[in-house]
Amino acid sequence: MRKKLEVQDYRDGVLRADRALLGRALTLIESNRPDHQQMAQELLTLLLPETGKSRRIGISGVPGVGKSSFIERFGSRLIDEGHRVAVLAIDPSSSLSRGAILGDKTRMEELASSEQAFIRPSPSGGSLGGVARKTRESILVCEAAGFDVVIVETVGVGQSETMVADMVDILVVLMLTGAGDELQGIKRGILEVADILAINKADGENLQAAEAARRETEHAFHIFRPEGREIWPPRVVCSSARTGFGLDEIWKLILEHEGTLKEHGLFEEKRKTQDLRWMWSMVDESLESALRHHPGVLEIREGLEKAVLQGKETPTRAALRILQAFGLERSFE
Ligand SMILES: Nc1nc2c(ncn2[C@@H]2O[C@H](COP(=O)(O)OP(=O)(O)OP(=O)(O)O)[C@@H](O)[C@H]2O)c(=O)[nH]1
Ligand SMILES: [Mg+2]
To answer: For residue range 110-142, what is the model confidence (pLDDT) as tens digits?
Structure first.
């Protein structure tokens, strides 16, 4: 049996970047057991002074776009330059099944075997909100362990992209050419969250098409310039994990982005805003869940829904009765 660890043991282990203890600290954070969660919060409080010192980079894109291959090559390069790289994955489907991405460590063989890298598959089970919390806290632990680059990989579907954008300093979205992908991306709201858009697999026969797609996307960005992105309009580049093309440029852009935000006093502000949004989103989610599971609410909800649907009760009065059942007396604005 493994020795039971005290909070101090975890803390010391993480701070000396002991890989086994780092792994166990993340397991503690991922645990849903109340006593584990309490210990995890104690640990995080002890580690807080040592956090915040990394570059937090999100990488997203549809399945098969080349995220893992990209991170393998990109991360290995950074390690060659003396960085220490942690890779955390978020698999939105893992909240339902246990099929975590990065079960494919094979795509990251070099990185996985490096002493200067640490790869952690997606936490499985629980809500997407739960996965977000676990990943955010894992970022902090990796920072305390001295990783100066933390990459969060996610499959770019629906909420997960926005969720990652809200926990990193910069989001790189990988895309492929063809099939109207460029415009699709813009429709899907990538424009709202992507800081760098990389047309990936820009190699061999695909190189020219990728270049054309890059120009087209850049053009589209000029036309639909989104609001609130004046300081850092999204940049479009080509990249290839196979040849390494574009990876230097992406790293340069990441540094430039950081410099630009710092110049405007926005780098720390972004992180602070993220922290507060995180705090409130946890409160919101818990309240909503508590309300929906409240016995008094459960008792009347079906009847009220029916009454509203049949036009026998106004939605406002029904809402008031639900809140009342939950113990809230209030009127609406
Ligand atoms: N030509 C070319 N092929 C690539 C490149 N990067 C990845 N591939 C291939 O694309 C396929 C998918 O690559 P992955 O790195 O697993 O893609 P992924 O986005 O991590 O996929 P999921 O984890 O399933 O979401 C593999 O067959 C890779 O060999 C590239 O830069 N150029
Ligand atoms: Mg992958």
So the answer is: 898 999 999 998 887 678 888 899 999 999 999
Q: Is 175 exposed, middle or buried (0-12, 13-18, 19+ CB in 10 A)?
A: buried
pTM across the whole model: 0.90
Pair 197, 217: CB distance under 8 Å: yes
177 lines ligand 1 (CB under 6 A): no
- Is 73 a pocket residue for ligand 1 (Cβ < 6 Å)? no
Percentage of the chain lying above the pLDDT 70 cut: 91
Class of the CATH-defined domain 51-264: alpha beta
Taking only the tens place, the pLDDT of each residue in 15-28 is: 999 999 999 999 99
CATH number at 1-50: 1.20.5.170
- Whole-angstrom Cα distance, residue 176 to residue 210? 8
Residue closest via CA to ligand 1's atom 17 equals 66
Q: Angle CA(209)–CA(214)–CA(216) in degrees, nearest 5?
A: 95
Q: Mapping DSSP to helix (H, G, I), strand (E, B) and coil, where does residue 171 land?
A: strand
Tell me how many degrees the CA angle 315-129-150 measures, rounded to the nearest 5: 150
* Amino acid code (one letter) for 162: T
Task: Name the nearest CA neighbour of 80 among 88, 72, 90.
Answer: 72
**Which residue intervals of the chain bear CATH 3.40.50.300?**
51-264
